[in-house]
Inverse folding.
C-alpha cells in the first residue's frame, strides 16, 4: 500500500470521540487544576488582594 493510500484510509476512518481512558485522564486533570486553583484563591495573600480589589470597587 502506498503512503497516499494509507493517508486516505486514515482520513476516512475519522475520529469517533474520546475513549473511557481519555475521559478519565481529562477528569483527573480537571480535578487537579480545580484543586490547585482553590488552594491559590484561598491563600491568605490572594484573599487580602481580592478583598482590597472588591472594597475599592464598592467604594467608587
Amino acid at each position: 500500500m502506498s503512503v497516499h493510500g494509507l493517508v486516505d484510509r486514515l482520513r476516512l476512518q475519522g475520529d469517533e470521540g474520546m475513549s473511557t481512558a481519555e475521559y478519565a485522564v481529562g477528569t483527573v486533570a480537571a480535578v487537579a487544576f480545580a484543586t490547585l486553583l482553590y488552594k491559590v484563591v484561598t491563600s491568605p495573600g490572594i484573599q487580602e488582594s481580592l478583598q482590597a480589589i472588591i472594597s475599592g470597587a464598592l467604594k467608587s
